[in-house]
Design a protein that fits this description.
This protein is an alpha+beta fold. The chain has helices at 49-60, 66-83, 93-103, 123-130, 138-144, and strands spanning 2-9, 15-23, 34-45, 108-121, 148-156. Helix content is 35%, strand content 32%.
Amino acid sequence: MQLRDLKLVLSGGSELAGSADIAGADLQSLASGRLTGLMLDWRLDGRLLRPVMEAIGGRLDPAASGNLAVDVTRSALRRVTDALPDAMLSGDSRSALDRAVTALPVGRGRLRLALTVAEGIGAARLIVAGVADNPLAPEPLATLFEGATLAVTWEPGVAP
């Protein structure tokens, strides 16, 4: 199954475009498929993410609001990106990911992610990672993304 030319255009100029490849699946058996490719091209307008990050940060730490909630969300994102296996990040992808997370929530720019997984990520891998004590720790993420390659580019300041 191939999903192509998916696009979400929001007011203010933010835009998320994507495509995906799912092996072993069709519309009737989507759950049995394995994600073998995912491309996201996100044009950030510099305004959209602040309320989202405040809401997430408030859920992660109920005592946090405003800028503190944004910091809580950014720290959580940083922990996840730091836990991604080095083997899956190609070239300058780790530093591009770090720069993008640092720029949030007011990062105006373009973030491109291209994930490829030869064997695919299916339900079995998701379950194994999901039942771990800390699913976002390095070991479960290494299992989930075994054989995966993630290419990341971050272009700051590019208008949507």
